[in-house]
Write the structure tokens for this entry.
Amino acid sequence: MGLGETAKDYAIHGGGVPIYIKNCDGPVAVVVVSGLKQWDDHQVVIEELGKLCEEMEKGTAGTPI
């Protein structure tokens, strides 16, 4: 089973980053972004996770939706 005629509408890669928590054996989540160039997909995730980590360290992170 393939994508057939619609294959041209999809990318075979995107930006995905696993989320790990201390004292857990494996990843607990994955953040995925797709729609930009592959490098940009990954960069969006890295930049936003960096901002979130800074906010969490400062104690200014908002409540998740």
Notes: Residues 12-57 form one domain. Strands lie at 15-19, 29-33. The radius of gyration is 16 Å. The chain has one domain: 12-57.
